[in-house]
Amino acid sequence: MTRSTPIPREVAISAVNWQLAIHNGEASEISLNHWLDADPNHRRAWEHIQQVNQRLGLMTNPALRSALLTPQGRQRRKAVKQLSTLLFIGAAGVGAGSTLPWREQLADLRTASGERRQLTLPGNIRLDINSASALNLSTQSSGPCIELLQGDLLLDCERSAPGVQVQLETRHGRLSAQQARISLAVHENAALVDLFTGTAQLASGYAPGQIQRLEAGQAASFSSNKAITLAPSDPNRVAWTDGMLVAARMPLGEFVQQLARHRPGYLGCDQSVSSLPVSGSYPLADTDRILDALSKHLPIRIRRLSRYWVRVLPA
Question: What tens digit of pLDDT does each residue of 223-245 get?
């Protein structure tokens, strides 16, 4: 077993219960140590809780404490399950190398659903940030360094000084660009770069020692578990900078997933209609209007339980 092996959900819940028992004086340090020694996963889960709690102060949150410090019962069991999910992010558990949502929450720059931002970095470098994105900014001797944690960005350093290199980092790999116009999107299993002008060098997490040179007009998909895949760049992927979502026979499921980033709450798509092709240019200012337009041209219906819960279903 390695540090990246996921912690089972039942162990996560047990660890939270032990944390509460110790915090409330319901268990002794001796009994806790017996539990920690019984399984390496127990100690890993316990150490993870201490690290997250120290960083975020979860046990000092008044609302959370009120729910967790109630006597044993249904309300407390529900709170324990919610806290274990919050701490360990997901039913399958979490490994030490996983990217947790806390990194996104604590990022230098974040955009909310439906929010897009534009800023100018030193050296005449322009940065567009898409909705629901998070990134960290730092400076190196050769130029700025941007770590994209989630979402999309469009970088324009065409007019930067000669010799200035912009570093772009993701959990899937890293790039360096000089006097280029380049977009980067980070997804759960891979990242996608489109190079519109200039040149760039790409090193994927799959083969970090191998450098792939990218030329203007190329796109590349890269990740930590497969080789780099090259394709032509697609300007439609940065239509969001103009407040548009442009699709050319895009599967409906993918279209809905992209649209969901530009509105609050839940927006989902039934698997039975997810492969229907969508084409057209859609203004992102009114996502409900987009959904209504789709329902007129595709065999689908829009189910709305509220403004914040919408699902696309077969007609």
Answer: 999 999 999 999 999 999 999 99
